[in-house]
Design goal:
Chain lengths: 246, 280
């Protein structure tokens, strides 16, 4: 069902990343879930855009969006007080495990991990947060992450650290964690898979979605030998089970 | 209510094959539409095509799902009993890579459904599919052989890709088809300029193809069998246009990708339009 909600707040974090806050009370939202956001009331762009949950507190839902094409650009032009049409939530939520966790974020992949961190903080699950971007100024929500994570590491390929997020993992004793959660570009997930970390890693995946709710089979990912739907069976999958080349 | 193929449907708004799975997730929608056309069913299970499978285009999208489905056995054993609890008519979309597959699937399913839609127009498979729907001899053969296996309504889903659907429709009706549905998706392609190769090649659907779909439906009117019109229907007004153009019913496809409840809105709007214009 399409919900019409009013944009209560809007904030530009960088010149291409912005947040929209809407009021959507009484939902039981889990990390990994997402909303399908309509970019236009016309048929062009045609499909909704899957946007992960960056925060949900007291009925206030925060969506953090990066402008990557025409649809997200149109969302960036929305103003406070305007209506937003959204569907969802969709996707299987993560069941949080009380385990010492490592969160690995690359680029805009930080958005769903912010919500995961918020939930973990609420449940007093200990976690460290590694977050890397290309350019230093693209790091968002740094102070918030530093406040809630036990340790936070921020790196930028073209910044002072001159390091990728996966390079930053060398600074950590990975075996001291029980579990890791990663979200970022597919190239990052592929490289992370090759590292073969000694702990289970769960990847938040993305793709072009059709319906976003499990009907059209448009968002396939090869997982443990068969195609799964990213929108309905995921979007979180254990990294070692994913075949990125099929 | 309307009567087509000797069957009473609760309304003229159906759900097209491929966009609604087997109608088991959004049952409130399934129970209010006139009929559901299942995802394409093949003799053996098909895992479908590798990603990317969908890509947005101007006022529509291209899909390259490739008939992912559990195969007819699993469909009959596990899915059909659940579908038969829905309060709507069930038509199985039958797809094959050989002519003989269609009759085998129809025979295996038997009388557990309300009818069949022979898919000789899928643009996303290597063998069969659209190639069968472009060749009058093969199209007629698929229909005639399936006809020997069932007394239930046989609808043939046609393509307008590089052929005249009117010509194919005539031979299919002569071979025993009870109805025609059209149009299936149009051939389409998106290019990856960086890699200098196609990013996706598949079936184009959505509002972008509606004028052409409407033209095709209109071209086929008067053949003496019901036509189920589809192609980019988003509103009751769109549906009404298809009925005026010669369709007896319409099927909703891509609109569902924007909103799984879209058929309910279209049913309401169509009812309003029909009442206003004095049609039933």
């Amino acid at each position: 069902m399409v919900r019409r909600v009013t944009i209560k707040k809007k904030q530009w974090f960088t010149d291409e990343i912005f947040g929209l806050e809407v009021h959507l009370p009484n939902l039981d939202l889990q990390p990994g879930q997402f909303f399908q956001v309509r970019t236009s009331t016309t048929y062009d762009p045609f499909l909704n855009r899957p946007i992960s949950i960056a925060s949900y507190k007291g009925g206030r839902l925060l969506l953090i969006i990066k402008v990557v094409g025409r649809g997200t650009k149109m969302l960036g032009q929305k103003k406070v007080g305007e209506d937003l049409q959204i569907l969802g939530p969709f996707g299987k939520g993560l069941k949080l495990k009380k385990k010492k966790s490592l969160l690995i974020a690359g680029g805009i992949g930080v958005a769903p991990l912010l919500f995961l961190a918020q939930k973990m903080y609420g449940k007093r699950i200990e976690f460290d947060f590694v977050y890397g971007v290309k350019k230093e100024q693209a790091l968002i929500k740094k102070s918030h992450i530093s406040q809630i994570a036990r340790h936070a590491i921020f790196v930028a390929e073209q910044g002072r650290s001159k390091m990728t997020v996966l390079g930053a993992l060398d600074m950590l004793d990975i075996a001291s964690y029980d579990i890791a959660y990663a979200c970022g570009p597919t190239t990052m997930l592929i490289e992370l898979q090759k590292l073969n970390l000694p702990i289970p890693v769960y990847a938040f995946c993305e793709d072009f979605l059709g319906c976003g709710c499990g009907l059209c089979l448009g968002c396939a990912i090869m997982y443990k030998g068969e195609y799964k739907r990213i929108c309905e069976d995921g979007p979180v999958f254990e990294l070692k089970g994913i075949s990125f080349d099929e | 209510m309307i009567k087509l193929f000797g069957i009473i449907f609760k309304n003229r708004v159906f759900i097209a094959s491929g966009v609604f799975g087997f109608g088991l997730k959004y049952k409130r929608v399934s129970n209010q539409v006139g009929a559901i056309f299942t995802k394409g069913i093949t003799l053996e299970p098909r895992k479908g095509n590798p990603p990317p499978r969908v890509f947005e285009t101007a006022s529509g999208l291209i899909n390259w799902v490739g008939l992912e489905n559990p195969g007819v056995e699993k469909f009959c054993e596990e899915i059909l009993p659940k579908m038969n609890k829905l309060h709507t008519k069930i038509f199985v979309n039958v797809a094959g890579s050989e002519v003989v597959h269609y009759e085998r699937i129809v025979e295996r399913i038997g009388e557990q459904v309300d009818g069949f839609e022979l898919n000789i127009s899928c643009p996303n498979v290597k063998e069969g599919g659209v190639a069968f729907g472009q060749d009058p001899k093969i199209a007629a053969s698929v229909v005639a052989r399936a006809r020997t296996k069932t007394k239930l309504p046989l609808i043939v889903k046609l393509t307008p890709n590089f052929c005249d659907p009117l010509k194919i429709a005539r031979v299919c009706i002569a071979a025993g088809a009870d109805g025609i549905s059209l149009i299936n998706t149009l051939h389409g392609m998106v290019y990856d300029t960086g890699r200098k190769r196609p990013l996706i090649t598949g079936g184009l659907s959505g509002p972008a193809i509606k004028p052409f779909a409407l033209y095709c439906v209109n071209r086929l009117q008067g053949l003496g069998v019901p036509i189920i019109g589809m192609g980019g229907i988003m509103t009751g007004q769109d549906a009404y246009e298809f009925l005026l153009a010669g369709a007896s019913a319409v099927a909703i496809g891509s609109a569902i990708l924007r909103d799984p409840y879209a058929p309910l809105k279209i049913i309401r709007e169509l009812k309003k339009m029909s009442n206003k214009n004095g049609n039933s």
